[in-house]
Q: What sequence folds into this?
């Protein structure tokens, strides 16, 4: 029980550490996001909550200070994009073989 409580507190502390700028305003691709809080971060993007809803933004289009805060690494992002593209190609190939009755 103590371990579970400790883990919950750690998760909350981490969320507060990343989402400490609740009055943050971001502009990405001419769209203005107000009252931004950060959520899940991947190698290429971040989920945000803002005054109008939620969105997923590419890390590459955020200001450098925020990229650093969120741990963005362009090289890791490129590897993730390549891996995703390969997985998509593999899935599409398997689907074509399945349609042809070869799988």
A:
């Amino acid at each position: 029980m103590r371990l579970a409580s400790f883990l919950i507190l750690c998760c909350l502390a981490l969320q507060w550490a990343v989402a400490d700028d609740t009055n943050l305003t971001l502009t990405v691709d001419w769209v203005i996001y107000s009252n931004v809080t950060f959520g899940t971060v991947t190698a290429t993007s971040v989920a945000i909550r803002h005054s109008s809803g939620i969105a997923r933004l590419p890390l590459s289009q955020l200001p450098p200070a925020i990229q650093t805060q969120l741990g963005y690494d362009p090289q890791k992002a490129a590897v993730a994009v390549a891996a995703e593209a390969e997985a998509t190609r593999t899935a599409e190939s398997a689907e074509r073989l399945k349609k042809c009755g070869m799988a």
The chain has two domains: 10-72, 73-103.
